[in-house]
Design goal:
GO terms for molecular function: very-long-chain (3R)-3-hydroxyacyl-CoA dehydratase activity. By secondary structure, the protein is mainly alpha-helical. Helices cover about 85% and strands about 0% of the residues.
């Protein structure tokens, strides 16, 4: 029964070269995020024991920047051209928020609010982002990769896909907001307008994140209701 459902889903989804491309894209992201997450986790015990936690940022930021977040820009392209069914606005908001954090906060202020001489709040916020983003994306890209391969997704993976979001999203958002807040001071030293821009972003970010959170919860419940009816 599960096999026939997977086949039916495969037929209703993308086909031909589009399907191959999406499978390759999702598999590449799954491996990239998985490697980044595993590498970060492997660094934590020795650096926590030696009180050198800030070094984790310098060792993991380039993989995060190059192998993961930059690839996320293609998510918006996929939505625009219609090769995936993800809503454009939801996709754009998610990608834009992470690009802001990686390119607008972590890159210019690495070594200052994160990865400094001593462990500070920004180091924990950075790890919160990597953890929340990493686990979420490993589950999500792995789910799509298995689906596009024509195989049936294990029930436990499906459960993770639709339930870990409730915990990981708040962790990710709170960590992102903390990093933006920590960046206000150094941003003002570069240019007062930069600081004002970050304040404006924070003013929009918090309520916007809540709206997006409730919207995505509604989407997940709708999907789960559809799955129950299909069963």
């Amino acid at each position: 029964m599960a096999s026939s459902k997977a086949t039916s889903a495969a037929r209703s989804g993308p086909s031909g070269l589009t399907r191959v491309y999406l499978w390759a894209y999702n598999t590449l992201n799954f491996l990239a995020w998985g490697s980044c997450l595993a590498y970060t986790a492997s660094l934590l015990p020795p650096h926590v024991l030696t009180n050198t936690l800030p070094k984790v940022f310098h060792l993991t930021f380039n993989p995060l920047l190059l192998a993961t977040q930059s690839l996320a820009l293609l998510e918006v392209v996929h939505s625009v051209v219609g090769i995936v069914r993800a809503p454009f606005m939801t996709t754009a908001m998610q990608v834009a928020s992470r690009i802001l954090l990686v390119w607008g906060i972590m890159a210019p202020f690495g070594g200052e609010i994160i990865g400094g001489r001593n462990t500070q709040l920004g180091d924990y916020a950075y790890l919160g982002c990597v953890t929340a983003w990493g686990i979420t994306e490993v589950i999500r890209y792995g789910f799509f990769s298995i689906t596009l391969s024509g195989n049936s997704v294990p029930s436990w993976w499906t459960w993770l896909r639709y339930n870990t979001f409730y915990i990981l999203y708040p962790i990710g958002i709170s960590s992102e907001c903390m990093l933006i807040y920590q960046a206000l001071g150094p941003a003002g030293e570069i240019n007062p307008l930069f600081r004002y821009a970050l304040i404006a972003i924070l003013a929009i970010y918090v309520p916007g994140s809540y709206i997006l959170y409730t919207h995505m919860i509604a989407q997940r419940r709708k999907v789960l209701r559809g799955k129950k009816r299909a069963d």
